[in-house]
Amino acid sequence: MKISPDITFLPKQGHSREEYEDAFAIADETWPRRFAVADGATESAYSRVWANMLVKGYVDVGPDADEIASWMDERRAAWRTFVKAQEQDMPWYSAAKVHEGAHATLLGCTFEADGFWEALSIGDCCLFQLRDSELITTWPFTDADAFTNMPPLLSSQESDKPADVQWMSGSWEAGDRFLLATDAVASFLLSDGRAKRFARPEVNREALIATARAQGAIRNDDCTLLVLTAEAGS
Is the peptide bond before 140 cis (omega within 30 degrees of 0)? Predict the structure, then answer.
């Protein structure tokens, strides 16, 4: 059995790839296989850096519920080290912003070779699981109306308020497809059977997102969609 990834990512319309503030990470081909997507909050400092640290940290470590607090502390320490190295060349207004920290949502999923999967979520990225072309799991949201402008976020700063971490697990088998999506794509996929269409291997997902933007059906935000296909073989 193997998990084959296919990534689609677009910056906001009118922005360059360098301004893309989502992030994704794909595991190497040893078990367990780990994958993650994140959405850096535009209004915070170095959010793109923070989002990338989160997804890469998840793929490298894949924390469970008992390890998540120390895992977060390690990521925060790495972010502070990065920021400190930038301070000398930073204008005063950027330095002030840095003290507020960076913020991001995160969705990570770990696949075991025995057919078990486990995911964690902080915020409003979503996971979709399809089997025999039918949607069997939608998590953590099932309704596009559940999305707000103020999702829970993981901060790079220490806080008295613990991060709102959710956990989910299930089983997978050959032929299953998983979609890991940041919020703009996720809310779009949660209606009209769109997740089924986007899961098909033959579709041009970037073109579908561009068309949806042009029609006003998806809001103009960074878009990240990681499609994972479970296949027989080694």
Answer: yes
Q: Which CATH architecture has domain 2-231?
A: 4-Layer Sandwich (3.60)
Q: Other C-beta atoms within 10 Å of 90: how many?
A: 14
Report the candidate in 16, 20, 25, 14 with the shortest Cα–Cα distance to residue 42.
20
Q: What string of DSSP letters covers 139-172?
A: ES-S-GGG--SS---EESS--SSPP--EEEEEE-
Q: Where are the domains of the chain?
A: 2-231
Q: Is 147 exposed, middle or buried (0-12, 13-18, 19+ CB in 10 A)?
A: middle
Q: Closest Cα to residue 228, out of 170, 189, 181? A: 181
Q: pLDDT in tens for each of the 234 residues of the chain?
A: 899 999 999 999 899 988 899 999 998 889 999 999 999 997 777 899 999 999 999 999 999 999 999 999 999 999 999 988 887 777 766 666 777 889 999 999 999 999 999 999 999 999 999 999 899 999 999 998 888 888 999 999 887 566 789 999 999 999 999 999 999 999 999 988 899 999 999 999 999 999 999 999 999 999 999 999 999 876
